[in-house]
Amino acid sequence: MGRSFPEAGLSEQEARSKLQQNGITINKSSCPSGVSYQNVSGGCTSLDGIKASVIEGAIQLKYSCNCPLQITGGTESGPAQGVTDHAGGYKLDFQPNSALDQYVQNNFRYTGFRSDGAKLYKATDGTIMARESDHWDATFK
To answer: Distance (Å, rounded) from C-alpha 111 to C-alpha 132?
Structure first.
């Protein structure tokens, strides 16, 4: 049996290029290296170190729902920190819109509430979408 190695992260440019080629927008420019998004005037959205599988998950979501997708959160310093969280490159935040909302509610299984009160929806592939107050928090498997 082969050994399992941690998945490498993409560079900011690689991630943005793949997303843009597939019609997925990003709400803000990239964050300066090592600077918290809270310390950037107007904010920033970083994709540096995002897992390739997460980018592929976002692209698959875009084509499955046939809806506009805009990323509002990535790997920037500031969101909750954890092994499989934003800083680790395993999550993206999306701007809600009626088409995305309807797609998730119709095609993912509602599984209850997260500890912070966000409604949780799970896809058959293991993707989890949490509806937070102002965005969708997506964890791709």
So the answer is: 14
Give the DSSP H or E segment for 16. helix 12-21
**Strands 70-73, 25-26: pairing kind:** parallel
DSSP state of 108: S
* Mean pLDDT calculated for residue range 27-42: 87
- Domain ranges within the chain, ordered by starting residue: 12-27+44-139
Per-residue pLDDT of 65-117, as tens digits, reads 999 999 999 998 654 555 457 788 989 999 999 999 999 999 999 999 999 99
Q: What is the pLDDT of residue 77?
A: 63
User: What is residue 22's DSSP assignment?
Assistant: T
Q: What is the DSSP string of 48-105?
A: TT-BHHHHHHHHHHHHHHTS--EEEESS-SSSPP-TTSTTTT-EEEE---HHHHHHHH
Nearest to 135, CA basis, from 39, 76, 48, 69? 69
